[in-house]
Amino acid sequence: MCRWLAYSGQEIFLEELLFKPQHSLVEQSQHAVEAKVATNGDGFGVGWYGQREEPGLYRETMPAWNDCNLQHLASQIRSSHFFAHVRASTGTATSRANCHPFSYKHWMGMHNGQVGGYEQFRRPLEAFITDEHYTKRMGTTDSEALFYMLFNFGLEENPVNAIRKMVETVETLQAERNITEPFRCTMAITDGDRLYCLRHSSDRFAPSLYWRYKDGDLVVVSEPLTDDQEGWNKVPASHVLVAHNSNVKEIVSLKV
């Protein structure tokens, strides 16, 4: 299972969350405590919004803790809205194209979890990606497929409904093939202003996901960044946290 964080708020240096906290994301890349494995060393990525509408990306295949370039960049780049992700592969290759976050125009997305039996229905799943978006797909992960599926389901018009349709489609394809392995997922999607964070599982074991709003800043993380968990709130299973410009607007159930 991967670990990730999403930030929206005042402009800060990326290092304030990637490196400085007690249980920073880079620390989690070696010592995760709420994941199947403690080490997330199959690549990493950061995506941030700056002076342009489209986000900047830096993704690498080496472990986050072993890339001095990441530390240099994080100490120089300031952003009011950014994603960061450390990867633990569930079977696909360790390549730059398979590292999160993924981006399309001004949208960005990242994922943690597993799509049970993915290889058994990969082709019909990918049929839900439009030709326009399929040409932009560079990697081989289920995560990237889920990201591009969202556009076909109306991400730009109604993101929460698109997320619902994505979950329903995956679980329908699994049921049609009698796949009993679970679909477990946390996912973050943003257009640079609005943020949507999903926590879901088809069984009782949804991956961990927390959020904290403090002094105008919103942080959504796989695991709290501090040993003291005061102020950190769990996103309920099968819900989507919706925020706009760092303000949490609602936490919506996937069930209509």
Automatic annotation (TrEMBL):
MF-aspect GO terms: transferase activity
Entry superkingdom: Bacteria
List the PROSITE patterns: GATASE_TYPE_2 (PS51278)
Q: Which CDD domains match?
A: YafJ
Q: Which keywords does UniProt give here?
A: Glutamine amidotransferase, Transferase
Keyword set includes Transferase:
yes
The UniProt entry, under SUPFAM superfamilies, shows: N-terminal nucleophile aminohydrolases (Ntn hydrolases)
Give the matching Pfam families. Answer: GATase_4
Q: Which residues form the Glutamine amidotransferase type-2 domain?
A: 2-256
PANTHER family reported for this sequence: GLUTAMINE AMIDOTRANSFERASE DUG3-RELATED
Protein's recorded name: Glutamine amidotransferase
The taxonomic lineage of its organism, from the top, reads: Bacteria, Pseudomonadati, Pseudomonadota, Alphaproteobacteria, Rhodospirillales
